[in-house]
From TrEMBL:
Dolichyl pyrophosphate Man9GlcNAc2 alpha-1,3-glucosyltransferase that operates in the biosynthetic pathway of dolichol-linked oligosaccharides, the glycan precursors employed in protein asparagine (N)-glycosylation. The assembly of dolichol-linked oligosaccharides begins on the cytosolic side of the endoplasmic reticulum membrane and finishes in its lumen. The sequential addition of sugars to dolichol pyrophosphate produces dolichol-linked oligosaccharides containing fourteen sugars, including two GlcNAcs, nine mannoses and three glucoses. The chain crosses the membrane at residues 12-36, 132-154, 166-183, 195-219, 251-271, 345-363, 370-392, 412-430, 463-483, 489-511. GO terms for cellular component: endoplasmic reticulum membrane. Keywords: Endoplasmic reticulum, Glycosyltransferase, Membrane, Transferase, Transmembrane, Transmembrane helix. This is Alpha-1,3-glucosyltransferase. Its main location: endoplasmic reticulum. InterPro entries: Glyco_trans_ALG6/ALG8. It is found in: Endoplasmic reticulum membrane. Belongs to the ALG6/ALG8 glucosyltransferase family. Its EC number is 2.4.1.-. Pfam families: Alg6_Alg8. It comes from the Eukaryota.
């Protein structure tokens, strides 16, 4: 008995020690990353979106301006066009939780330097000290919300040894796309993704009400979390139906519904007293006047636009209906599969397939929206390492025109190369490139009419060619001048190349979801 107790204590001690070491490692990595970003900023001058570029000055100024507005104006004016709040100049277009976060940041900024959030006079304010403060707010949000969720997911909901879990954690946090957008271009994507990941973590551990609350917070921080909403809905509804809607399942569904309603009500409380306030917020966060897509986003409509000018052929309403129908058709198979088989493996795949379907086919997609697909794909790092690394590399590459516009070439090259090297090495991605590991069995059935091929070898060579093509296009985008009659040649080539990668990943993950599930359990059950 004493031996058993000693063994248990030893295991607990080892786990605690391992977790502590991981947390310290993560904090050090994050702090180092923030310092690198700031130092690069000082060396490369305008190392953030739109710095010194009137009249709008980019996303960095948008975040600063929201702090100015939320601190100086009453809540009732945050989403309305007034003499003190020009909605044409970075008007708030995110849900209330983003506004509250901006207010908290502004309160701290006011204590440090009132000039940073002074009404009207602070417009387009830029200084090294302010940039350091803004990036510090991103880091604090990461440390409080995103990183703890990633750590817990990697240690509690992935299989393998402690070393493998640490490697998965390291690669998860090294994903260049999120780092470059949040710290370089400048946004707070990790906050909404962190809340969503807390929701995924809670559902994986069997805490459905808590998971519903966390995902409600994600939706109330960024409306684009709707990319993940259908899998959450289907997974929870499927569990309730499986349990029995005439008994325990009904009370489970009722508890989840009440949790979601209360969470939304609390987030929207300041706007519920006046229906016009709530309607204005909804109008701001769901604008349909902006068009089918923006810039050179790597989705279906932008790629198709090279051959067929959809935006000129169809009316805006027709574009909206077309994208809605295509998105629903794309997401339907995955959702039905999850609804009929609500387990955690299906849930992870449905999250990836749903977010990719929305990115590829939905209305008003930004190039940064690929981050919403990257999060659920990251959840599969331990299961499908080569495919996930490949996709994450392509997702970062798809935002290359944006990074070049923001002066982020050097950070893009360094973070992309570092992620590729460490992830392939630490996760043994090329060594694990077998038909069983890649779940390619279903492909032989689909390609029965062709001679039997070594699909794993083909995947490996496609990976090499793909990485070489992305590297070549990255160099060409910087080193070569496009012909005068094709000024957008390289952004379009980047967009179409990335689109083909995303479409291939979408088809692959759908086939994996409908094929034989892995024999090992992808979650730990807690009663």
């Amino acid at each position: 008995m004493l031996l058993c107790m000693n063994e248990c204590l030893l295991r607990v001690g080892c786990c605690c020690c391992c977790c502590c070491c991981c947390c310290v490692l993560v904090v050090l990595l994050s702090f180092t990353g923030a310092l690198v970003c700031h130092n690069s900023d000082l060396q490369l001058n305008d190392f953030c979106a739109g710095a010194g570029k009137p009249p709008m000055f980019g996303d960095y100024e948008a975040q600063r301006h929201w702090q100015e507005v939320t601190y100086n104006l009453p809540v009732q004016e945050w989403y309305f066009n007034t003499t003190d709040n020009d909605l044409n100049y970075w008007g708030l277009d995110y849900p209330p939780l983003t506004a509250y976060h901006s207010w908290v940041c502004a309160y701290i900024a006011k204590m440090i330097n009132p000039e940073w959030v002074e009404l009207h006079k602070s417009r387009a304010y830029e200084s090294p000290a302010h940039k350091l403060f803004m990036r510090a707010t991103v880091l604090v949000a990461d440390l409080l919300i995103y990183i703890p969720a990633v750590v817990l997911y990697c240690f509690y909901l992935t299989d393998g040894s402690s070393r493998k879990k640490v490697s998965t954690l390291f690669c998860f946090l090294l994903y260049p796309g999120l780092i470059l957008i949040d710290y370089g271009h400048f946004q707070y994507n990790a906050v909404s993704q962190g809340f969503a990941l807390w929701g995924i973590l809670a559902l994986g551990l069997g805490w459905d009400a808590l998971g519903s609350m966390a995902f409600s917070l994600a939706l109330n921080y960024k409306q684009m979390e709707l990319y993940h909403a259908l899998p959450f809905f289907c997974y929870l509804l499927g569990k309730c139906v499986k349990t029995g809607l005439t008994g325990r399942g009904f009370f489970m569904l009722l508890r989840i519904a009440v949790t979601v309603l209360v969470s939304f009500a609390l987030c929207w409380l300041p706007f519920l007293s006046d229906p016009s306030q709530a309607l204005q917020v909804v109008r701001r966060i769901f604008p349909v006047a902006r068009g089918l897509f923006e810039d050179k986003v790597a989705n279906t409509w932008c790629s198709l636009n090279v051959l067929i000018k959809i935006r000129f052929i169809l009316s805006r309403d027709s574009q909206l209906y077309l994208s809605l129908v295509c998105t629903l058709l794309a997401v339907l198979p995955s959702s039905i599969k999850l609804l009929t088989k609500p387990d955690f493996w299906q849930f992870k795949l449905a999250l990836a397939n749903s977010s990719l379907a929305f990115f590829l086919f939905s209305y008003q997609v930004h190039e940064k929206s690929i981050l919403l697909a990257a999060l659920p794909v990251c959840l599969l790092l331990n299961d499908l390492p080569l495919v996930v690394i490949w996709f994450l590399q392509a997702s970062t590459f798809s935002m290359l025109p944006l990074f070049l516009k923001d002066g982020l070439l050097v950070p893009y090259v360094v973070t992309s190369a570092g992620f590729l090297f460490f992830s392939v090495y630490l996760l043994s991605a090329l060594e694990r490139c077998t038909e069983d590991e890649l779940r390619l069995g279903a492909y032989h059935k689909l390609l029965f009419f062709l001679p039997k091929m070594d699909l794993a070898c083909m995947m490996r060579w496609k990976f090499y060619v793909s990485i070489a093509a992305m590297a070549g296009l990255s160099v060409a985008s910087v080193a070569l001048v496009p012909p005068p009659h094709l000024p957008d040649l390289f952004p379009v080539l980047v967009s179409v190349t990335a689109f083909l990668h995303f479409l291939g990943t979408f088809i692959y993950l759908n086939i994996v979801q409908f094929s034989r599930p892995p024999t090992r359990k992808s979650q730990k059950k807690i009663n």
